[in-house]
Amino acid sequence: METKPILSVTKEVTRLCLIDNVILAIRDKWSQGDMGPIFIQQDNARPHINISDEQFIQEVSRGGFDIRLRFQPRNSSDLNVLDLGFFHAIQSLQEQQVLGPIDELVHAVQTSFDKMSSHELNNVFLTLQTCMKEIMKVHGSNNYQTPHIGKGKLERQGRLPLQIECDSNLINEVVSSLNH
Predict the structure, then answer these.
(1) DSSP-assigned letter for residue 18
(2) What is the pTM of this model?
(3) CB proximity list for 69: less than 8 A, separation 6 or greater
(4) What is residue 104's predicted lDDT score, i.e. its pLDDT?
(5) Confidence at residue 16, expressed as pLDDT on a 0 to 100 scale
(6) Which of 60, 62, 95, 112 has the maximum number of C-beta atoms within 10 A of its C-beta?
(7) pLDDT tens figures, 91-119
(8) Residue 7 CA to chain centroid, in angstroms?
(9) How far apart are the first and last CA of the chain?
(10) Whether the Cβ atoms of residue 27 and residue 65 lie closer than 8 Å to each other
(11) What is the pLDDT of residue 7?
(12) How many CA atoms lie within 13 A of 79 on its CB side?
């Protein structure tokens, strides 16, 4: 199948990329025992589709998965998993290639995404979770240091978690402060 060159990113291009690539990859790689909810976070760029986009919702409703779109909170790079590591990881893979036209860049990003391991993605999401926990500790402020948990060492010891635990007292404190 021959693809048309991408001249500009529009809502239609974004929708097609989500449906033809992202949703397909989720269905292929996600554990069938865990059908969701699965959240796809978009930044607030104009070409991104609305979270209630009918075509997107119709497509994701097939196959039993619960896949939802969300926009990241504005001005929240510390909570943007894409900024925390995904873009960096893909960019470092993509920079290993010499590129010409935009189609080559698109292909390089796609290839880099395909090469990205679940291990690398887990590390990005662990960083996101540690940032979220620190933000909770400082009551929503951005006055904190990004914690380093020694992911490499933990992995070598076979103790790298898939998720960061959060003390129930901290959760209760945050919920209480939000309710007041």
Answers:
(1) I
(2) 0.56
(3) 39, 40, 42, 49, 50, 51, 53, 56
(4) 76
(5) 92
(6) 60
(7) 776 677 666 777 777 777 777 778 878 88
(8) 25
(9) 57
(10) yes
(11) 63
(12) 18
Q: Which pLDDT score is estimated for 6?
A: 61
Q: How far apart are CA 43 and CA 144, in angstroms?
A: 23
Stretches where the chain sits below pLDDT 50 are none
One DSSP character per residue, 57-111 reads: HHHHTGGG--EEEEEPPTT-GGG-HIIIIIHHHHHHHHTTS---SHHHHHHHHHH
Give the residue among 14, 17, 19 at the shortest CA–CA distance from 48. 14
Residue of 27, 33, 25 lying closest to 115 (CA atoms): 25
pLDDT at 80: 72
Which of these, 27, 35, 41, 37, lies nearest to 69 by C-alpha position? 41
User: What is d(CA 68, CA 60) in angstroms, rounded to the nearest whole number?
Assistant: 8
Q: What residues have CB less than 8 Å from 127, skipping those under 6 apart?
A: 84, 85, 146
CA 51 to chain centre: 15
